[in-house]
Each structure stands twice: as structure tokens, then as C-alpha cells.
Specification:
This protein is about 70% helix and about 0% strand. By secondary structure, the chain is mainly α. The longest helix is centred in the C-terminal third of the chain and has 46 residues.
């Protein structure tokens, strides 16, 4: 399904007319009789420059921060089924798995600690803490894989929306054909690396707490235990800070890998090198945009869920004034269920926005560095002229890579 772009070719029906940048200053002059005025032929008396065309989601020119942020909101509203729908499914699945795994292990660990003998208490406590920390490995791995898949699908939606086209879910999956294996492989490898780092942190934390318990047993001095606990927490904070900084840097440098795998159809190693190169000189812009969107989503989530939690708490007290245990449990389940659903919706919106922002920043960088805007403009003009077998405009070497008959870009 393709939208009819509300934009006319700046050169009439001639698809090869856009050989210079759409924001370059044209030679001022009168418009030919009957010709459709465009960015290269302004009307008589008009300024020597007019805005570049906007066939779809964004104008075909380098993007401002406001355009990237605003367009990230519009992606989901423009085509909600394959964007918001998929995001809700993935985010909901991750939330349910995390709640089930984490809740079960916490209940199991509390039971072990409560029933432990005094002689084995320190070891069981340290093991329980390590078990709880390690329980986060499953949802962390799933979250990385799901987020990578969603970013890849969203990048396809953004790429077509930029050209004024709107595809259904089946059309987006058709575009992703042949690249989902590489995308899943990359995200699975990334999950493995993250799991290793989390396991190291958990091992260090368990070792620190175990050492603290042994120090108390050997010395019998409570002050030694307090010092040991403070030292253990300081070590954990330091490890967490180091991991956060390294994760933010590497994550930003590899931010475009899913997009590149799907749009440029490169191998995993080539996509990693490509993303690393594209973020040179654009690191802080990419990181800052994502941090700002995360802050907006988190604040919006708190604004939505906090009042509802407060109201439901009061309503529960009014419904159950006698503090009946059964009614209390039912009220708590209903409260957490409603808040959980709202959190899933807000989180899904955030995933779509962040994935869209990555794709828009990627397109913006390529417009600035590689003249991607010209390739997109030629694609739009060729489609309007009825040309078949049009190349994928997002490939790095489109002129040397003609589209095949069954190409999803044809």
C-alpha cells in the first residue's frame, strides 16, 4: 500500500532533473509557462531559494533536532499497526518474563534465607543475592534481542515513510526478508556480551558480601562488618558506573547496526564497522537525542501511572475498610495489573520513539555526508514517472547494484 505523495516533481515528468542538491541556491528566473514551480525554478520575484521537497515524513534535507524529535512522535501515529502493535507485543512479553523470573527467584531466595541455619546464613545470603542478580540475565538478553528486532522493523517503516509510502505489516516483513537472521544473530551476540558483564558484576558482588561475612565471623567485630558492607557497596557502585559508561559509549557507536543491516543489507561485521564510522563526529548528538527521549518517556510514564496508583490505593482502602486479607490481595492484584498495563503501553511508545530517532539520525547523517537526499529524490521522481525496477536508494552503491525483478524496492 502506497500513499499518494502530496508533492510534485520539481522538474515535471523528467526523472533525471535532480542532479544538484535540493537545497542548493538555484539561478533565479521566471517560471516557464505552464511549468510547475519547484525548488529549482522559483516564481518570478520570489527569493533565490525555496524549501526542499517533503514527499513524506521529513523534508529531503539535513534535519534539525526539532524535526528528528517531532518526526519520532509521528511515526507511530502515521502507521500504528506495525509499529506500536509490534512494540506492545515485544515489550509486554519482556515485562511478563521479567516479572515471572524475578518474582519467583526473590520468593525462593527469601524462603532459603528465612530457613537457613546461623552457621550457613552468610553463605546463603550471598548466594541468594547472586541468584537474584543473575536472574536479570534472562530479561536483559531478551530485551536486547527484542529491541534490536523492533529497531530494524521501525527503520524500514521510517525509510518508506520518508519517501511518502506507507506499508502494512506484511509489506515491512517482506522488506526484512533475508536480513532477519543476521539481525537476530547480531542481537543474540550482543546479548551474550551483556550477560557476561552482568555475570562478572554478580560474581564480584557475591564475593564481596561473602568476604564481609567471613570477616565478621573471624573477628566478631560489628564495626568490621559495617566497614565491609560499605566497601562492598562502593565496589558495586564503581563497577556499575564503569559498566554504564562503557555500555553508553559502545551502545551509541553501534546504535545504527540494526538499521544498516536492514536498509543497506550488509553483513554483521560490515554493519558494525559502518555504524562506528557514521557515529564519528555525531556521538553526542546521537546519545543526547536518546537520553532526552528516555527522559520524556519516563516523565510521561510517571505522570500517567503515579496518580492512577494513588487513586487505586485510596479506592482499595475504601472498598476494603475491614482489611480483609482476601479482598486486600485482590485489590493489590488489580492495582498492579492496571499499572503494569499502562507501563507496557508507555514503554512500547518509548521503544517506537527511540527506534525512530535512531533511524532519522542515520538518514540525517547520510544526507549530510553522502548526499542521500539526492538518491531519495531520484527514487521519488522515478516512481512518479512509472519507472519499474527502481534501485534501493539506501544502498551505499545503488548505481552499481541494480534491483532484481523480485526486489522489494521494485
Amino acid at each position: 500500500m502506497t500513499e499518494t505523495p502530496n508533492w510534485q516533481s520539481p522538474a515535471g515528468a523528467e526523472p533525471q532533473a535532480a542532479q544538484q542538491s535540493p537545497w542548493a541556491s538555484p539561478v533565479a528566473g521566471p517560471t516557464a509557462p505552464g511549468a510547475q514551480p519547484g525548488y529549482s525554478q522559483p516564481q518570478a520575484g520570489a527569493p533565490g531559494w525555496t524549501p526542499p521537497p517533503k514527499p513524506g515524513l521529513i523534508p529531503l534535507r539535513p534535519l534539525s533536532f526539532g524535526t528528528i524529535l517531532g518526526s519520532s512522535f509521528r511515526v507511530m501515529r502515521r502507521n500504528p499497526a506495525p509499529t506500536f502493535g509490534l512494540s506492545v507485543l515485544l515489550y509486554g512479553f519482556i515485562t511478563i518474563v521479567f516479572a515471572a523470573v524475578f518474582g519467583s527467584l526473590i520468593a525462593f531466595s527469601i524462603g532459603r534465607v528465612d530457613s537457613a541455619d546461623q552457621t550457613d546464613y552468610d553463605e546463603i545470603l550471598a548466594g541468594s543475592i547472586g541468584l537474584i542478580l543473575l536472574s536479570s540475565l534472562i530479561p536483559v538478553g531478551l530485551a536486547i534481542v527484542a529491541t534490536g528486532i523492533l529497531q530494524g522493523i521501525i527503520s524500514l517503516e521510517v525509510s518508506r515513510a520518508t519517501l511518502g509510502e506507507k506499508l502494512k505489516t506484511r509489506g515491512l516483513w517482506r522488506l526484512a526478508k533475508g536480513r532477519l537472521g543476521a539481525l537476530i544473530g547480531y542481537t543474540a551476540a550482543l546479548s551474550g556480551i551483556a550477560i557476561v558483564f552482568v555475570a562478572i558484576a554478580a560474581f564480584v558482588a557475591v564475593g564481596a558480601f561473602a568476604a564481609t561475612g567471613e570477616s565478621l565471623t573471624s573477628t566478631g567485630d560489628p564495626s568490621a562488618m559495617i566497614g565491609g558492607l560499605l566497601g562492598s557497596f562502593a565496589l558495586m557502585l564503581l563497577i556499575g558506573l564503569v559498566f554504564s559508561v562503557v555500555g553508553a559509549y559502545v551502545g551509541t557507536k553501534l546504535a545504527f547496526v540494526p538499521t544498516i543491516i536492514l536498509l543497506e543489507r550488509l553483513t554483521i561485521v560490515a554493519a558494525i564497522k559502518r555504524s562506528w564510522q557514521l557515529t564519528n563526529g555525531n556521538f553526542w548528538r546521537t546519545l543526547g537525542t536518546q537520553l532526552l527521549i528516555s527522559v520524556i518517556i519516563n516523565v510521561a510514564g510517571q505522570v500517567i501511572t503515579a496518580p492512577i496508583s494513588f487513586v487505586l490505593g485510596i479506592a482499595g482502602a475504601l472498598v476494603n475498610p475491614n482489611s480483609d486479607p482476601g479482598a486486600f490481595i485482590a485489590t493489590m492484584i488489580a492495582t498492579y495489573g492496571i499499572v503494569g498495563i499502562l507501563s507496557i503501553v508507555v514503554g512500547a511508545v518509548g521503544l517506537v520513539m527511540q527506534s525512530s530517532a535512531y533511524s532519522l539520525i542515520y538518514i540525517d547523517i547520510r544526507m549530510r555526508r553522502e548526499g542521500l537526499d539526492l538518491e531519495l529524490l531520484r527514487y521519488v521522481e522515478a516512481k512518479q514517472a512509472g519507472t519499474s525496477g527502481v534501485d534501493n536508494p539506501y544502498l551505499v552503491h545503488t548505481n552499481s547494484t541494480p534491483a532484481t525483478a523480485d526486489s522489494p524496492w521494485s
